[in-house]
Structure formats: C-alpha cells, structure tokens
Amino acid sequence: MTDTPGGNELWTRDGAELAAGMRAKEFTAAEVAEAFLRRIDEVNPVVNALVDVRPDEILARAAELDRAVAAGGPLAALHGVPVATKINTAQRGYASSHGIPAWADAVAADDAACVAALRDAGATLLGRSNSPAFAVRWFTDNALHGRTLNPWSAGHTPGGSSGGAAAALASGMVPIAQGNDIGGSIRYPAYCCGAVGLRPTVGLVSAWEPAGDVEFDSPMSFQTMAVQGALAWTVGDLRTATRVMAGADLRDPVGVPAVPRFARSGPIRVTVVRDVGIAKPHPSVDAALDTAARLLSAAGHEVEEAAELPELAEAARLWSLLLFEELRTMLPEIEMFGDAGVKDSLASTFRVAAEIWGEQPTLATYIRGYARRGTLITRLQQYLGADRILLTPVSAEPPLEQDADLAGDDRMCEVVAAQWPLQAVPVLGFPAVAVPTGPAGGLPSGVQLIGGRFREERLLDAAAVIEAGTSRSRPVIAAAHG
To answer: Would residue 86 show up in a list of annotated catalytic residues for this protein?
Structure first.
C-alpha cells in the first residue's frame, strides 16, 4: 500500500484529517476511497464487519466529489469521508435486510433521513455494516451475513446491534459509521471495540425511513426510545457526524420542530454512579471510572461520587417491561423469519424479565410503567439541570464472551444485570456517549457519560477530555491476503 504525504496511510486518518486534506487538494476523494477499499479487502474477510460493498459505485461517487473540488464551490462537512450504514436502515438501492434471508431483496427506494443527511454532507457511503437479526442482541451474528468478530478478540462480542459498525471502525475500514440504539446498540459496540458512540436525545436525529412494501406500525417504545446516531473513531468525528445528522423533521413522530443549539461553556459537575444495586462493577470497569474521573477533575470539572441514584435502577428495570411487552407483538414475525440465535436469546431474555415483572404483566402494570417513566424523566432532568452529567459504566462487565446470551438463563441473568447502564438511558430519552479509557486485559474498556436532554455538546466536551488523556491504538489484524 502506498504511503501518502506525511507518511500516514489514508485509512489511518480520521474524518476531519481526510476532509481537510481533500479541501487542500493534498489528495482526492478517489484516492481516499481506493485506500479504504484496499483496507476493506485486507481485513473484512477476517472481521466480517461490512456487507454489500460496491467498489464501482463508491469510486463513481468519489469522482463526483472530486469534480466538485475542481469546480471550486463550497464543500460539505464530510466531503469524501467514508461512512458505513447499517443493514437495518434504508439506503436507496440497498437491501434493508436486518440480517434476515427472507428480506435479502428488500431493496429501499429511498434513503432514511439520517442516511440522506450523511449523503448531503458529502460522505462516501462505503458499505453496509452487519448486525444481529432484528437488531435485538448485544452480539452480531445472523443467518444471512454470518458472524462479525471483535477485531481485538475473536472470542468476545464486538457488541450489538451496531457490532459491524464498531468492528469496521476499530479495524480501520471507515472513520465514521451510522448506527441506532434502543438498548445500547450504539454505545455497547463502541465500548467493546474501543470506539466512541453517541446516543442522541430522542427526536434530535430523525428516525424517519421510507415505507417499504408493507407498512410497519412502530410500537410506542420504538418511537420514544429508539434513536439514530453515529459511531466514530474520534470524538471530533463523532461531533461532526452528529451535527450533520441532527435536523428538524416532523415526519418523525417524536421529531423536534427545530434543532436546539446549546452553548459550550464553563466547567461541568460530574456525578460518578458506579453501582445502582443491580450488578457490581468488575474491577476493570471500576478502574475505567477512576481514570475518567481523574481526567475530568484535572481538567477543572467538579467530580463527586453518588451515594445512590435509585432512579437509574428503576429506569433500567422499566426497560424490560415497556420494551419487551411491546416486543411480544413482534414474536410471530420473529418466529417466522428469525434465526435460531435471536429466537433463543429472546426466549431467555423474556424469562429473565419475568423474574422482575411476572410471566404475563397486566395492562395496568404496563400503563403504570409508562406513568412512572414520566416521573423518572422529570426527576432526573431536574437533578441534572444545565451543567451536571453522570459518569457511569457502559456495562458492569468487560466485553462479553461470544454468545453469552445463549449460555443458559443463569448467564443471561448476569448479562442483563450487567447492561443496566445501557437500558436506563433509552427509557429516559437522554443523550449518552460511550468513550474509551484504554485497554484492560487485552480488551477495550471505557465509560458512559449521560446528560440532560439536548446536552450532547457538553457530553462530547467531556468525552474529548477523556480521549485526550488516554492512549489509543487499533488492534493488529492479520490480513486475509498475504
């Protein structure tokens, strides 16, 4: 592979460096696309993070972007930057397969709003990232595209459901990837692969997608807990991608009519929440929290330990009521089209949820759950105010072993308990970012930062402090081709 000026191969550069280099005419969008396609050819056969990569289309897009440079007009924020999109999100001309063989030909006629925003910002859409079937596992494997490996360790999950996105970032196939999150599907893969991932406030990034052949009536939890967002290798790229994707869109039933912009100024108050009584954090998780707290304190922010914050525990438990009671309505479709992994995982998760809410929660329990959700949102929003953020684990455990959710109900109980920080946030609808703190025991480690609604900029500022104070590296991956 040929080195670029400055001695760095193009695939090693972040999106900001790439966009700046193309603006300065140091290299072209075609050269960038070719470098990343070579990287994909080297490592994707090993990792299996991206599917449906179309070099001819990618190079044609790059040529179009290079003509824009030659014409001398203004260039968009992500001009020529390679970005991956997820197989459960509409991209025109590509299947929204969800990893399901029966949907392999479900080609989208138009882009989802978030994909259109990335395209309009000049991104080169480089490939589709893998996910579990129906995007409902913290592990990335499906009957259509197979298993995605964590580039750091084949025996550990790359996370899910945006596991292909995070594995592609860690292995240098793209600097930015689109994802979505209803129970940690952006934040957990970022944690497992050593990337950064932001789950934005509900409604900030439009979740609108074009209707397919069959109209899908999205359950309430999907409308009010699921979000579109981004993962990236750097906080700077994550900030840019989030700003690009954010936008007023009233086609989204919870979309905001205008995009709030909050000033980034002054120190923040950081409350460390290690344990809410659900799962004791692993020593490496405690160490990551210590590292992040030390860095934020050294940067001038006020850091304190929380004696308790029971609202987070309540929110995590409500997730297994509100989401899973609505998932019951999808079980016939999952039974018809899902693979063995998703069926077995969901069955085990329902049994774990039954230990909290009973085998068949009543309608009254469900209604009271939504009522309680509103109370928790109000309480925590008041607690956070304008300048407080929470520093929590991403998970109480290091990245899980592959298929831990298929290892029996006892292990599933541990898995669900460990993921309480991932579950609490969607119920609240707040933004949260996962940021790495460096490796631990040969695997990535990191923390989660949670803020009040529309406080993404404050979270990203804090994440940048942590990023600047920790060492970063990519895993070494044996090339598939000599």
So the answer is: yes
First vs last C-alpha separation in the chain = 13
Q: Which amino acid is at 388?
A: R
Task: State residue 50's pLDDT score.
Answer: 98
3-state secondary structure of 443: strand
> What radius of gyration, in Å, describes the C-alpha atoms of the chain?
21
Entry pTM: 0.97
CA angle, 422 then 423 then 424, to 5°: 100
Query: What are the φ and ψ backbone dihedral angles of 72, each rounded to 5 degrees?
Result: 80, 10
Element (H, E) at 415: helix 409-418
Instruction: State the pLDDT confidence band at 314, using cuts at 50, 70 and 90.
Output: very high
If you ran DSSP here, which 8-state letter would residue 283 be given? Answer: H
Quote the DSSP letter at residue 282: P
Which tokens go with 367?
């209604």
The string of pLDDT tens digits covering residues 32-66 is 999 999 999 999 999 999 999 999 999 999 999 99
Of 129, 162, 171, 185, the catalytic one is 185
Q: Which of 196, 125, 126, 187 shows the shortest CA–CA distance to 161?
A: 187
Q: How many CA atoms lie within 13 A of 2 on its CB side?
A: 7
**Separation between Cα atoms, residue 165 and residue 228, nearest integer Å:** 13
Tokens standing for 474?
């990519």
- Find the helix packing angle between 283-298 and 456-468, rounded to 10°: 100
The label of the residue with tokens 């980034």 reads: 264
Structural tokens at position 22? 């193309």
| Short-list 263, 262, 268, CA closest to 292 | 268
Residue 226 scores a pLDDT above 50: yes
343 as an active site residue: the answer is no
**Cα(374)–Cα(189) distance, integer angstroms:** 28
- How many C-beta neighbours within 10 Å does residue 8 have? 11
Residue 171 catalytic?
Answer: no
* Residue 136 DSSP class: -
- The string of DSSP letters for 229-273 reads EEEESSHHHHHHHHHHHB---TTSTT--SS-------S--EEEE-
Residue among 429, 458, 463, 435 nearest 200 (CA): 429
For residue 7, pLDDT beyond 50: no
Secondary structure (3-state) at 435: strand
Which pLDDT belongs to residue 478? Answer: 65
Instruction: Please tell me which residue in 96, 131, 153, 161 is annotated as part of the active site.
Output: 161
Helices (H), 107-255: 113-120, 163-170, 187-193, 220-225, 235-245
φ and ψ at residue 259, rounded to 5 degrees: -90, 115
What is the CA angle 200-202-204, rounded to 5? 65
Question: What dihedral do alpha carbons 282, 287, 289, 291 form, nearest 10°?
Answer: -170
